[in-house]
Amino acid sequence: MTSATTPDLRAGRHCHNVVNPFHSTHYFSPDLGAELAEIGVEGRSPGYFAIRSAAMGAVGPGTVTATFYNFHHTLVARHVPAVWDVVTPEAALAARLRAVDRTLRRLLGEELLTSPEMAEAAELALRAAEAGGRGARPLFAAHADLPVPDAPHLAYWHGATLLREHRGDSHLIALVGAELDGLEALVTHNASGRGMSYLGIMRTRGWSAEEWAAAQERLRGRGLLDADGELTEAGIGLRKELEDTTDRLDRAPYAHLGAAGVARLTELGGAFTQAAMAAGAFPAELFGR
Length: 289
Prior knowledge:
InterPro entries: HTH_67. This protein is mainly alpha-helical.
């Protein structure tokens, strides 16, 4: 139910869509690779698995595959738990935060990072995340146990991370309910034109062209893809249902923040994300079809 003080479900989705890229900037930053190399972690995949799962402790490959969902388990098992022989979760988290700090300083500059607007965005994001549900949301719950950094831009990044992982965990619940495995989720999202590009998926998720084709065939068998790999009417309907279900499961943080707070966080988050994108935060070839 929506009122003057309770935001529409789609308002929460829109807010997430502009706040999430602020969290994601460090994944594409050379600063992350440099910080991880300093502690002995080389390569994109082991670094990514380490920094994102570290909040859960030195977990094994099964936990990472389950919580990340759309990575090939063989790729995960190639690097986890071996990465924990090189670095502790605590060291990985510290390196991640240093990389975030370096990345945001380079992209946005000191004036924006220390602005009243950044501090306001941090307060709003963290207030929203207070209402996030921990049940069946392992990545959110683990990150919610971490301390909030003192610097406003890092506090906002931490709040953005919590909101990202809360929606991500909620989305996985929706995917399981729709009986889409990790690769099928990637294929349908790519076919919608809104997900990571085929090139980006193949570079980072560990799937083969043959496995991609097999997933397409399974989806055709369900009437979700046509012969050209495009979403059918049923496929479009399923993707809409997935997003609507995710909105519903992810509504608590935004309901807690209220309509005015969500609107303000969307405004501030959009401005910060646009500034980061204008500074070249994201490689264009990883997105789209």
